[in-house]
Amino acid sequence: MNAATLSSATLVLALASVGSIEAQALRCDCTSIVDTCSANVEAHGSYLDIKTNAKQCARVDYFVDGQPLVSVAMDGEDRRDWPARTASPKIIVQSCQVCRDNGAAAVPGLRSSAAAATRAAGAQPANPSGAQPEKGGLEPLIASMPVYPADARRRRVEGYADVEFTVNALGTVEGAHVTASQPKGTFDEAAVAAVSRWRFAPEQGRAPQTLTKRVDFKLDALDAADSGSSAASLGPRNECVREDAVYNYGDTVDVGLINACSVPLLVFGCAPGTGRYEGRWLCTDSEQEGNVLVPQNDRRLGTRFAADTANGVRSFTYTNGFSVIRAPNSQYWWIACTEQDSTCLSDARDWVRSVGGQPATVDPRDRSRAEVARSN
Length: 376
Hints:
By secondary structure, this protein is mostly beta strands. The protein contains 6 helices and 21 strands. Helix content is 13%, strand content 37%. The two termini are 34 Å apart. 42% of the residues are buried.
């Protein structure tokens, strides 16, 4: 591969595990900043080690090779998975803020700060999973998209599954099971697996609530044409990029992106920034991160390869997830190109260069020759 086939841009953020987020949201209320602190972030192979001088909850904003990241450290430390992409990544700590600490002993009986953060941001909980909202019911703070069953996708089958489940006081899902589905049995397992990963706002003393949600399974219209041929891959493939889990931290929102088509994609993204980038567009280049987006069950996942770029030979990895960090109540924009579409890649690179750093009042569509997609 050459530089024309491997250059892209995206806003990438490694998502923390659900369990870690639950503990942080229950104990650490970072919508209330009580002091400042200092922090140090170090890369150790497959993980990042975050340490602060505050022995309570602290929010650390930092950059790793240009990627904006956020960690919530409890008891002065945090650790997050980080696939090693460069031997010595450049790490810049932007800020360290001490959050209100509700105390470890009180975690089981606390109201989630995630719910407070959502209210403070004036935003509704995200629901990118394909599930139909239930009138008057709870809505998930974290809703994962289901994995489309391979056989159903191969046979071009669409349908739905109605899932009944109970939400406990901690906001976790119990007893998920299918009450109706079409075609019967085709999507049951995938729907239950997805709903079981959902997370709702915890609330002290709330009685368990039983809900029923419909999870839809609809194929991408262009999947049928996904043959890998040059004719099928010309032009932006923006419709292939879909949301997975969404994490609302109050002053930032992290959105996980997945590839819903079969062809590998390079994704260029821009979003209104936060912190030092507040009021401006923040765009980053995934070529520097060495990632190419493939579907979640793709056989190429984790495969590394070397390719020539404008800056010499670089190492790339096929991955199944990217993330976008954006300001609350804002939209993000993207252009997705196949590896072989040199025209799309060239247009997308030019778009990122012309939008990045500009005031957020600039319309990203006015800066691109290619079609640009935006979030809802």
